[in-house]
Specification:
Helix content: 40-55%
Mean pLDDT: 94
Shape: globular
Low-confidence stretches: none
CATH class of one domain: Alpha Beta
Largest sheet: 8 strands, mixed
Number of strands: 8
Distance between the termini: 80 Å
CATH architecture of one domain: 3-Layer(aba) Sandwich
Number of helices: 12
Structural class: alpha/beta
Strand order of the largest sheet: 1-2-4-3-5-6-7-8
Strand content: 15-25%
CATH superfamily of one domain: Alpha/Beta hydrolase fold, catalytic domain
């Protein structure tokens, strides 16, 4: 019995020591960006050639102060005969440069368009000493700041609509419930209503993140997650089956380290699990009465397509377009398909703007 007690005590001491090392490490964490050689920069430049849509001549970059010390990067392009304002909200790790294609397409259809990089990514405010970590303080904070930006750029007496991608769609739907912003329609591209935990039990991962967050380790990278490092170009991924575009974001990170966000933290997961419970509760979303158009991918390893469709079914006015062969990185996997989906979203907006 004494031997068992000694073993147990030793194990507990090791566990405590491991936790203490991790806890102190996070409190005094330092950060350096992975260096990029001249050759790697050239490779990134060559890979990106012709793949990014340049910002139009009348594009206006903006800085939006969401709170003291919290400055978010945004942008705006107005239309002389605007049918309304569309706010484009990027997905997790996304930057404005990555969504300029849809911004230009929506603008060419007759809309003024604005976008914002919410806190934690792009060239916006980063909440942690390590700016590359994906970290969420609270979805309500993200939602309220996106709403405040939209109110600042909205056009008087014209429709206000949202085109939101993945995590951006999650933020937008929380905004729809948690704020009093008056929005006319929503289009959600591969919405991150619920994340996909793969072969791991959803509830087990959820329980682990709750425990680690409660013990002060929320800022730790989730298992398998890490900062950006130079990658091989021209390789298909679970998110994007097209090797010609699969590393587009990685190439951008090589050329502009300020854009780098790579890898989610424990707290990111914890807040997402908690927020998902709300979005999948019909009582929570019953106030969303505006028309919602959802686009889902048939081979999505990152978010749950079933949950997105369930979410749509809970809403008063929602429809789904499903692309069987698409993956989560639908915005850059097949431009012909994606352009057609953006056109469908524009048609969805047109039905609303005609009422003004």
């Amino acid at each position: 019995m004494k031997i068992v007690k000694n073993i147990l005590l030793t194990v507990l001491c090791l566990v405590f020591l491991t936790w203490l090392i991790a806890f102190i490490g996070l409190r005094f964490e330092s950060h350096e960006y992975a260096p990029i050689s001249a050759q790697q920069r050239d490779e990134a430049t060559q890979y990106l050639a012709g793949k990014l849509t340049p910002s139009p001549p009348n594009w206006q970059w903006q800085r939006f102060q969401a709170a003291p010390g919290v400055v978010l990067r945004g942008g705006l392009i107005t239309h002389p005969n605007s049918k309304g304002m569309v706010i484009v909200v990027p997905g997790f790790t996304g930057s404005i440069e990555m969504i300029m294609r849809e911004i230009v397409q929506i603008h060419n259809a007759g809309y003024s368009v604005a976008t914002i990089e919410y806190r934690g990514q792009g060239e916006s405010y980063r909440p942690l000493p390590n700016p590359e970590k994906g970290y969420i303080e609270d979805f309500v904070v993200l939602a309220s700041e996106v709403a405040a930006f939209a109110e600042r750029v909205r056009e008087p007496e014209k429709a206000l609509m949202f085109y939101s991608i993945s995590k951006g769609a999650h933020i937008t739907m929380r905004m729809a419930v948690e704020t009093d912003i008056d929005v006319d329609a929503y289009a959600l591209m591969v919405p991150m209503i619920k994340i996909n935990t793969g072969e791991l039990s959803y509830n087990s991962v959820r329980g682990l993140t709750k425990f680690l967050t409660a013990t002060g380790l929320g800022a730790m990278y989730a298992p398998g997650q890490s900062a950006y490092s130079p990658e091989q170009y021209g390789v298909a991924t679970p998110c994007n089956a097209n090797p010609e575009t699969a590393q587009s974001q990685g190439a951008m990170f090589a050329l502009n380290e300020k854009l780098r966000t790579r890898g989610s933290t424990i707290k990111w997961l914890y807040e997402t699990f908690h927020s998902t419970d709300k979005l999948l509760d019909p009582n929570y979303t019953q106030s969303i009465r505006q028309p919602v158009k959802i686009f889902t991918a048939g081979i999505d390893h990152l978010v749950s397509t079933d949950a997105a469709q369930q979410f749509c079914g809970n809403l008063a006015n929602c429809s789904v377009t499903h692309s069987d062969t698409a993956r989560h990185c639908i915005t850059r996997e097949d431009f012909e398909l994606y352009d057609s989906l953006v056109d469908e979203a524009i048609a969805h907006f047109d039905k609303t703007s005609e009422n003004y």
